[in-house]
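Write out this protein's structure.
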Amino acid sequence: MWDRLPHSGESLVAKRVFREHGGKGLNLGLGLHRLGAKVDMLLAVGADDAGEAVRRALVAEGMRDDSPCVRAGPLVATTYPGRLG
């Protein structure tokens, strides 16, 4: 979290971090499940604390946690600045 948004080309150091599970597939599957639909999801999660947190979140929602594909390996993150660069 920041006090302000960064200007173009500027980097800011966050004062605190807020983590939430998400992504189009997870959000859609969870929403449909909450509406009462039977949902089976095919997910890939990391073999780390974040991946385990996703699996715990599925169980907390009453969903199965045996479908995520758990993979160990390096963390890869990609960002695209868009047309505003």
